[in-house]
Write a structure and sequence with these properties.
mainly alpha; Growth Hormone, Chain: A; 2 domains; 10 helices; about 325 residues
């Protein structure tokens, strides 16, 4: 357990004062997860507006989550090295800017690129939440704070499709699907202004070298696996698709080997491979991968089918 007098952490805040930093990070966490699901309901509107193909719609969704995962790998170390408040605010500002750019996208390619940048900004921001909560609350109060964080995450996963459907149905200011991105901008501005004033700064007591090779191998492996899965409707399952799957397996294998070697040398890997020895961790990891890889695709297919094929509204 962290010592409250650790110089790497700020002085613990009074309970009433600590509520303000908690609200800031909870709002930011809420919009991060909402944006992972809100686009699913908007897919038919995006398809009609900028002429996105089925594969491109999948990339609009996947680009965010893939970049989010890459950001999560690196974001924690950035906060440890340069300050969690600073990196959180940088990620929050970048999230607001990339949300605006996504709203201004004129073709599928630009939207996919801006969504990837948005996901990376979210991935940089989210890991700082835990450090900020830890530095704001006494140990006896942290369970409640983390409980509130978990509740917000659950609410956001449900609210994303509902909020997206509502915004598209009411056609806020005539913006159609673009309103799902514009709505983030004022939230980010307010959260940034308040965050500058109330968030405590903290960082790790020592700065460990960043495992850039491990992070690159992990991101490359996941991308090589996703590419044929999404593009299979255009490419089919020929030599190219299976070759990319094989390359993904090799890359992820190299990632595990490299992380094990780094651990033996006393380094700090982005992923501790000894966790795979735990049956409960491995089982949970497999279950999570299967669940989240299926649920996103299911929601996207249902959204397109019900709106385009069934004539239903987004709401």
């Amino acid at each position: 357990m962290t010592n409250p007098t650790d110089p790497a952490l700020p002085p613990l805040l009074a309970r009433r004062t600590a509520a303000l930093p908690l609200l800031v990070v909870l709002f930011a966490s809420f919009i991060d997860l909402v944006d992972a699901t809100i686009v699913v309901v908007a897919a038919p509107a995006i398809e009609a507006s900028i002429g996105a193909t089925s594969a491109q719609l999948q990339w609009v969704v996947a680009a965010y989550t893939l970049a989010l995962a890459a950001g999560l790998i690196t974001g924690g170390r950035l906060g440890d090295a340069y300050g969690r408040k600073r990196i959180f605010l940088v990620g929050l500002a970048a999230f607001g800017v990339t949300s605006a750019l996504s709203a201004l996208a004129v073709n599928p390619e630009s939207l996919i690129g801006f969504r990837a940048a948005q996901g990376l900004a979210a991935g940089i921001m989210v890991p700082q939440v835990f450090g900020i909560i830890r530095g704001s609350f006494e140990p006896s109060q942290r369970a409640k704070a983390f409980g509130a964080y978990g509740a917000v995450q659950g609410l956001a996963s449900v609210a994303g499709p509902l909020l997206g459907g509502l915004l598209i149905t009411i056609n806020l200011f005539g913006l159609e699907w673009r309103s799902i991105f514009w709505i983030n901008v004022p939230i980010c501005i307010v959260a940034f202004i308040v965050g500058v004033q109330v968030l405590p700064e903290s960082r790790s007591g020592r700065r460990a070298p960043f495992d850039i090779i491990g992070a690159a191998l992990a991101a490359a492996g996941v991308f090589l696996l996703l590419l044929p899965l999404i593009q299979s409707t255009l490419w089919g399952w020929g030599t190219l698709s299976w070759g990319l799957v094989a390359a993904a397996v090799v890359t992820l294998g190299l990632f595990i080997v490299y992380e094990r070697g780094l651990t033996r040398r006393g380094g700090e890997p982005v992923f501790d491979p000894t966790l795979l020895k735990s049956k409960s961790f491995s089982a949970g990891l497999v279950a999570s991968v299967l669940f989240f890889s299926g649920i996103g695709s299911l929601f996207l297919m249902l959204s397109v089918y019900l709106q385009d094929g069934g004539g239903r509204t987004a709401l």
